[in-house]
Amino acid sequence: MRYDTDSGLDIPTWHDTAQERLRLLAEVGLDGTPDAEFDRFAAHVSGTFAAELGSVGQGLYAMVNLFLPEAQTFVGLHNPPGAKPVARTMAPDHGFCPEMLDRTKALVLADVCAKPQFASNPVVDKLGVRTYAGAPLVHEQAGTVLGSVCVVGTSPLPKETRQTCLALIKRHRNALVELLGQRASASGGRHSTGSQGG
């Protein structure tokens, strides 16, 4: 646990909730293995952002990200053509998806460098990430965040695109929740994978 001075509450950390997430992921048939269907989904997410945002939305990475005990694992990954490829795994404290553990709502950062707490993240220097939009995958019954769907880019987006990005990433999260539910039903899974909240 860590103490959050803003809320005055003890907030669970990555490792506090790791075993519960792993159990819930297993219930819905997800084990962190890369999946061609999720890769196609990630490519579709990136393409939709490009179509909706025009030239400023070109070249976005997209991921279907599961929070496993020791790492974030991209079971779905789209590396834009000509861009530096990213690996399938990332440390728990890298990137902006771990923010989902504290907040069960979508997060859009048109320019991650606009806020010091985000500008200092290792992915800014390592990968040149400057923009982020992500939404959490929340297990409906347990209320536990299992992972996220997100896009990142190496150029900041105009501030006026924030609401469009928020609507897009939530729409894709909802579509992914439906896809996961279908897969769980097909394999005899017992629970819904996620909720379609914020």
Description:
The protein is of the alpha+beta class. The chain has a single domain, classed as Beta-Lactamase (2-Layer Sandwich). It is built from 6 helices and 8 strands; from the N terminus they run ββααβββαβααββα. The chain has helices spanning 18-27, 36-53, 99-102, 116-119, 122-126, 162-186; strands spanning 2-4, 9-11, 61-67, 72-78, 89-90, 107-109, 131-138, 145-153. β3 (61-67) and β4 (72-78) form a beta hairpin. α2 runs antiparallel to α6 (162-186). The chain is globular. It starts with a strand and ends in a 12-residue tail after the last helix. This is GAF domain-containing protein. Residues 50-159 form the GAF domain. InterPro entries: GAF, GAF-like_dom_sf.
List strands and helices in order, with pairings.
Blueprint: E1 2-4, E2 9-11, H1 18-27, H2 36-53, E3 61-67, E4 72-78, E5 89-90, H3 99-102, E6 107-109, H4 116-119, H5 122-126, E7 131-138, E8 145-153, H6 162-186
Antiparallel strand pairs: 1-2, 3-4, 3-8, 4-5, 6-7, 7-8
Helix pairs in contact: 2-6
